[in-house]
Specification:
The protein is an alpha/beta fold. 50% of the residues lie in helices and 17% in strands. The protein has helices spanning 16-27, 35-47, 55-61, 92-101, 105-121, 131-135, 149-162, 169-185, 207-222, and strands at residues 5-9, 30-33, 67-72, 75-80, 83-84, 124-128, 141-146, 198-201. A five-stranded parallel β-sheet has the order 2-6-1-7-8, with helices on both faces. Strands 3-4-5 form a three-stranded antiparallel β-sheet. Strand 3 and strand 4 (75-80) form a beta hairpin. The chain is globular, with a radius of gyration of 17 Å. The two termini are 20 Å apart. The structure holds 2'-deoxycytidine-5'-monophosphate. 2'-deoxycytidine-5'-monophosphate binds next to helix 2, helix 4 and helix 8.
């Protein structure tokens, strides 16, 4: 099958997942959240008391872990050694651990084939940091979604509070800035727009306006 692949990259909290989920439902595509994979590797490290930035031990831990994505009723679930960890990967500690392990080349190599395989078999919108640059350089559409750090921290704070996870706004903002720095300064596959991506800044856009902007770009590019 010649699948249609749409890559959406950008920093944490730019609205990638909400927008990609909504757009994929409209298009009948699957939505692949690749951050969940790095989060699962991060959670595995935390569970085993491995410091997530300890490249040597994180790399060793990959030898006996299995990370899988399953799509149940169109919803992605992530499994770590057969256990559904889709909720556990959403804590602030898991976010930081994910950012740390994602800078380790062996981790990126470990998750690469899984992402490519899904994209080759399915029409999908895949979101992450390096989808347009590294994972799917031939994606038909590449979007780089961004917003100011403050706007992104406000959204992430609201999202976590809504889920009953207690956090302090200033900590969320600080962690967001730290994670942006880590993600865009690492040596391997750093967060940056692909040369052929369309940049959409959602700082002053509502969620509906952001979804509309992405959908109109997709229909224009797909000629639908
Ligand atoms: O999208 P997210 O916040 O769930 O991602 C968690 C971390 O994983 C993020 O800080 C960077 C990393 N990541 C990555 O390096 N490459 C991807 N394709 C997706 C996420």
């Amino acid at each position: 099958m010649n699948s249609i692949n749409i890559a959406i990259d950008g920093p944490a909290g730019a609205g990638k997942s909400t927008i990609a989920k909504s757009a994929s439902r409209k298009l009948g595509f699957i939505y692949v959240d690749t951050g969940a994979l790095y989060r699962a590797v991060g959670v595995n490290a935390l569970r085993r008391s491995i410091t997530p930035s300890d490249a040597e031990n994180v790399e060793k831990s990959l030898a006996d872990i299995k990370v899988e994505l399953k799509f149940i009723d169109g919803q992605q679930r992530v499994y770590l050694n057969g256990e559904d960890v889709s909720e556990e990967i959403r804590t602030p500690a898991a976010s930081m651990a994910a950012s740390d392990v994602s800078a380790i080349p062996a981790v990126r190599a470990f998750l690469f084939d899984l992402q490519r395989d899904i994209a080759s078999k399915n029409n999908c919108i895949m979101d992450g940091r390096d989808i347009g640059t590294v994972v799917l350089p031939d994606a038909q559409i590449k979007i780089f979604l961004t917003a100011s750090a403050e706007a992104r921290a406000k959204r992430r704070y609201a999202e976590l509070t809504e889920k009953g996870i207690e956090v302090d706004y200033n900590n969320v903002l600080e962690e967001m800035i730290q994670r942006d720095y880590n993600d865009s300064h690492r040596e391997i596959a750093p967060l940056k727009p692909a040369g052929d991506s369309v940049i959409i800044d959602t700082t002053d856009l509502s969620l509906e306006q952001s979804i509309d902007a992405v959908l109109s770009l997709i229909s224009q590019k797909l000629g639908k």
